[in-house]
Amino acid sequence: MKARLVMIALAVLSAAAQAQQVTSVEQADAALVKVAQDREAVNAAFAESERVCNNKFFVNNCLDKAKEKRRVALAAIRAREVDAEHFKRVASVAKRDADLAERARKEQEDAATRAAQAPRAPKEEHAAPKPPTGPRVADREAEFAAKQSRQAQQDAAGAAQRAANVEAFARKQEESRRRQEIVARKKAENAEKARLAAEKEAAAAKKAAAKQQAPAQ
């Protein structure tokens, strides 16, 4: 058990000696991963030491030694952790400063480019109004009045035509009625003539018959 603790302590001290060699963010990240692994190993070894010490006669003395070894190992691990985190913070600040410097440089270049460009002619604030392209108000009113006049004339012409049509229809009706009266009168006259002729023929026939019967008496 002691040999295992010694090996862990040596590994921790060796890693602590290598902590000063961190020169990149990737190495710092790898160092933090190794820190977590070593801390877990130290705690596991201490738990094993506690189990062994509890079976010994001098329990407290054994536990004190195990705790001291754990403290030394964790202190070395913590030192590596601090170094790696410090390197990452410094790298982050350096990157931020570099980004700010690059942004400032680009802004200066853009300002210089804008200053070198020729200024544009100022836009006229009071430009002359454009002449109207559509018809004027007076023209629109005249056109509307002419349209109303044409519509009134069309309505009047239509009314006159309708009145003429009504009058023509009435005249045709009257002429038809007169023709019917003439036809009816002629029919009546012809019927009367036919009746008179029939009566005359009947009277003549009766007279002739009477003459023929007279000698026989």
TrEMBL record:
Taxonomic superkingdom: Bacteria
UniProt-annotated stretches for the region Disordered: 101-217
Keyword Metal-binding: no
Keywords: Signal
Ranges of compositional bias, category Low complexity: 148-164, 205-217
Signal peptide positions on this chain: 1-19
Keyword Signal: yes
Protein's recorded name: Colicin import membrane protein
Top-level taxonomy: Bacteria, Pseudomonadati, Pseudomonadota, Betaproteobacteria, Burkholderiales
